[in-house]
């Protein structure tokens, strides 16, 4: 069978594909939105990661008829009462100082935390993945990844807020998530933790 990974973010899609393919499910073909006629992204107006993940996965099923998996994710910063959370993708609102949305978002995060001392810079990446079947069956799973926001970007892997996030895990050894090899990130990350819970359902699709 086939599974559609319904993300318009190329770097996120790459991670989703990597984790699903690493599960080694024979007979399961992974496809992306690029394999279908383009459709406008649905409005992510839910009040939670769960609602937004379902909005994206339901739209993908309606458009393609395929079992569809969507991720809604973001970073929740303790000192900012959980912000930017579900607003993470476009937090800086286009007022970017650098060359990309990610650059602007990271600049804004550094500015918002400029007066916050090292021991109060805790944060969690959150990934909620929704798997929606053509018959309407819906499964929603969540993964979280604790760490701290540092004061200067490090590393070129990953995407988004990775250059500023140092995971709590000993295995990361103080590196940012942008300094981890792709398979190291997958083994620890919010997205990896969410997706592993879907593997039995994906097996059933094969
Ligand atoms: P789709 O909705 O099309 O999947 P998107 O990038 O708009 O793509 P979200 O609305 O879920 O996705 O926003 C997720 C944002 O959270 C993402 O753009 C990053 O800024 C941040 N983020 C999520 N996971 C991350 C990760 O693993 N590393 C760094 N930043 C991450
Ligand atoms: Na989005």
UniProtKB/TrEMBL annotation:
Assigned EC number: 3.6.1.66
One example of a Gene Ontology biological process annotation: purine nucleoside triphosphate catabolic process
Name the record gives this protein: dITP/XTP pyrophosphatase
Entry annotated with the keyword Transit peptide: no
Cofactor annotation comment: Binds 1 Mg(2+) ion per subunit.
The organism of origin for this protein: Gordonia malaquae NBRC 108250
SUPFAM superfamilies from the UniProt entry: ITPase-like
Listed CDD domains: HAM1
Annotated positions binding substrate: 7-12, 73, 159-162, 185, 190-191
Active site: 72
Complex formation: Homodimer.
HAMAP family, per the entry: Non_canon_purine_NTPase
Family: Belongs to the HAM1 NTPase family.
Alphabetized UniProt keyword annotations: Hydrolase, Magnesium, Metal-binding, Nucleotide metabolism, Nucleotide-binding
Cofactor(s) needed for function: Mg(2+)
InterPro entries referenced in this protein's UniProt entry, alphabetically: dITP/XTP_pyrophosphatase, ITPase-like_fam, RdgB/HAM1
UniProt cross-references to Pfam families, sorted A to Z: Ham1p_like
A GO term from the CC aspect: cytosol
A GO MF label: dITP diphosphatase activity
Lineage top rank: taxon: Bacteria
Amino-acid positions noted as binding Mg(2+) in the UniProt annotation, renumbered to this chain: 72
Enzymatic reactions: ITP + H2O = IMP + diphosphate + H(+); XTP + H2O = XMP + diphosphate + H(+); dITP + H2O = dIMP + diphosphate + H(+)
Function statement: Pyrophosphatase that catalyzes the hydrolysis of nucleoside triphosphates to their monophosphate derivatives, with a high preference for the non-canonical purine nucleotides XTP (xanthosine triphosphate), dITP (deoxyinosine triphosphate) and ITP. Seems to function as a house-cleaning enzyme that removes non-canonical purine nucleotides from the nucleotide pool, thus preventing their incorporation into DNA/RNA and avoiding chromosomal lesions.
